[in-house]
Design a protein that fits this description.
The complex is a heterodimer. Chain A is mostly beta strands. In chain A, 0% of the residues lie in helices and 58% in strands. Chain B is an all-beta fold. In chain B, the strands form two sheets. In chain B, strands 2, 4, 5, 6, 9, 10 and 11 form a seven-stranded mixed β-sheet that branches. The chains are: A mainly beta, B mainly beta. At the A-B interface, strand 4, strand 5 and strand 9 of A face strand 5, strand 9 and strand 10 of B.
Chain lengths: 113, 114
């Protein structure tokens, strides 16, 4: 059974620093991995989607990487800002599991002004 | 841009009431999903629908039912609400069989059962 893990559960970082969020998964038979952002009390906003054949995707200050064979993905945030404070979730779409995706529990990020 | 709209942001109901949560998407997606999100437990799939009138149980379907009479609308029903159903409910949609396309989420409904 696929398990998606995000460690740490919470992270505080001073403004301006670069940071990395981690996501690991146990079954490498995936179609894609998606990173989401969630602000308190709100829904999920898709940030980046990496296909299984890709190694990374970039959007502005965000860069997501995927190492499918080792079951790992990272979300790199450059020059962090207080507005980046949110919960970040990763999710994988597993092969042969219909169109469902499996979520990690997220990393709650706090950028200190 | 895909838009997934949940009818209420906040909802307060009483134990035993029948509760309807509505979700509408505007991109002709075949798949629609209902999740609940609780602290420490993450997102858990309640029900999934891959076409009109088609539904499939997720990980935690007990106490819930769903209705998909039109392609754009997916309703979650709490037949007799209980306090342990107080939660954040999230709806999502995606294209069927398009494994390289993302899921799109609504803004969520925070439901409190008193």
């Amino acid at each position: 059974k696929q398990e998606v893990t995000q460690i740490p559960a919470a992270l505080s970082v001073p403004e301006g620093e670069n940071l990395v969020l981690n996501c690991s998964f146990t079954d490498s038979a995936i179609y894609n991995l998606q990173w989401f952002r969630q602000d308190p009390g709100k829904g999920l906003t898709s940030l980046l989607l990496i296909q299984s054949s890709q190694r990374e995707q970039t959007s502005g200050r965000l860069n997501a990487s995927l190492d499918k064979s080792s079951g790992r993905s990272t979300l790199y945030i450059a020059a962090s800002q207080p507005g980046d404070s949110a919960t970040y979730l990763c999710a994988v779409r597993q092969m042969n599991r219909d169109d469902k995706i499996i979520f990690g529990k997220g990393t709650r990020l706090h950028i200190l002004p | 841009d895909v838009k997934v709209t949940q009818s209420s942001r906040y909802l307060v109901k009483r134990t035993g009431e029948k509760v309807f949560l509505e979700c509408v998407q505007d991109m002709d997606h075949e798949n629609m999903f209902w999740y609940r999100q609780d602290p420490g437990l993450g997102l858990r799939l309640i029900y999934f629908s891959y076409d009109v009138k088609m539904k499939e149980k997720g990980d935690i379907p007990e106490g819930y039912s769903v209705s998909r009479e039109k392609k754009e609308r997916f309703s979650l029903i709490l037949e007799s609400a209980s306090t342990n159903q107080t939660s954040m409910y999230l709806c999502a949609s995606s294209l069927r069989g398009q494994h390289y396309q993302p899921q799109h989420f609504g803004d969520g409904t925070r439901l409190s059962i008193l």
